[in-house]
Amino acid sequence: MRYLGNKTKLIPFLMRHVRRIAPRAGVACDPFAGTASVSMALKEAGWTVHAGDLLASSYALQVARVELDHPPRFPASLIPPDARNGRSAEDIGYRSLLGWLSDHGEGEDGHGFVSEHYTLQGAAGRAHGRMYFSPENGRRIDGIRTRIERWTREAGLGRAEAQLLIATLIEAADRVANTTGVYASFVKTMQPNALRPLELRPIEPIPRGNGAGPCTAFQGSATRRLRTIGPVDLVYLDPPYNSRQYPSYYHIPELLALGWATPPEIRGKTGLIPDDGLRSDWCRKHRAPEALHDVLEAADARHILFSYYDEGLLDRSEIERALRERGVADTYRFFHRPYRRYRSDADGPRRNYRRDDVRAHLHYVRCA
Ligand SMILES: C[S@@+](CC[C@H](N)C(=O)[O-])C[C@H]1O[C@@H](n2cnc3c(N)ncnc32)[C@H](O)[C@@H]1O
């Protein structure tokens, strides 16, 4: 998924350093997990991973990509008997269910929430002129999300199964969103990707490594995640590094994660949803130093890796000082790599970048 600060392209660099500092996989915590790309790489390398993030959309991705070890089975009663291919099976596979949902996506009365607020055409006579999705895709998203809600409420769809379906929908919607990569604005003409029909593609959960324990997902602050998880071998910290608040850049995935059983109050040109408690201190220059101090204090780990970029709100020297204070004398190390900056039109012409390449920084300290 397109996501600010997504580390997918940096995985080989990160994992090389993880292998160097901790050759044997143990227990890791990734409390700023975002798309869960790093948690996934750690799980693939045999680690037991405890992921976390402030956002509900990240939680869905964490469950799908990290917590689950294999695709779950779903109660066959979710779909009508005549759609079960004559089998009296008690459960139904993930792919079969997605196939059915794709064909019946619009069959549910979705109250047109996405249609009304995020498509040009609107719904039930109401439209707000926001062009995030084509009218057809808006209707399908409405139908699928409403069905997941109803299955959860009335048909006993389990938490992890529901989160897997929500993550699948978030990814599908992202592929057909009429944006340049973030949801802080929509494009004023429909782009080719936005005209394609919404397609639910299965997410492949990663099997647990030999000897690894269950991986877990979490929605909440990094400090809370670290305090509740207790001692671990590795903490990987990847906080926001500039003033862009994630809830304003990803409000639509967040809406899809939360649903609209209680309709949120929508505001502004882009249709923001309430984000109380989700605005991060890491995105405020005067609060970031304290956030750094608090997260390091909460991290009970043998190894701490801290990802950041140059041009971030915190100076490199400030991070180095904090890590040196937290760790064992002389174990602090610094690694870096050039990285092509993620650009989005949503940043606007006035966003003044000094250059297109930034440097990805990786700070390390051993704590025990
Ligand atoms: C740089 S991104 C992480 C990217 C992630 N490593 C990936 O590869 O997708 C930073 C993440 O931190 C989350 N975040 C911001 N403040 C937080 C906090 N105080 N506690 C937990 N998560 C926070 C944001 O929601 C965002 O997903």
Overview of the molecule:
- The protein has 368 residues and is α/β, with parallel strands linked by helices.
- The protein has 13 helices and eight strands.
- α3 packs across α7, α3 packs across α11 and α6 packs antiparallel against α7.
- The protein is globular and about 65 Å long.
- It starts with 10 loop residues before the first helix and ends with a strand.
- About 1% of the residues have low confidence.
- It binds S-adenosylmethionine.
- The site of S-adenosylmethionine has 23 residues, from α2.
Features:
single chain, 368 residues, 2 domains, 8 strands, 12% strand, globular, binds S-adenosylmethionine
Short description:
By secondary structure, this protein is of the alpha/beta class. Helix content is 36%, strand content 12%.
List the helices and strands and how they pair.
Layout: H1 11-21, E1 27-30, H2 37-44, E2 48-51, H3 56-67, E3 74-75, E4 91-92, H4 94-104, H5 113-118, H6 135-154, H7 159-175, H8 192-195, H9 222-229, E5 232-237, H10 246-249, H11 251-258, H12 288-298, E6 301-309, H13 316-326, E7 333-340, E8 357-366
Parallel strand pairs: 1-2, 1-5, 5-6
Antiparallel strand pairs: 3-4, 6-8, 7-8
Helix pairs in contact: 3-7, 3-11, 6-7, 9-12, 12-13
Bound molecules: S-adenosylmethionine (SAM).
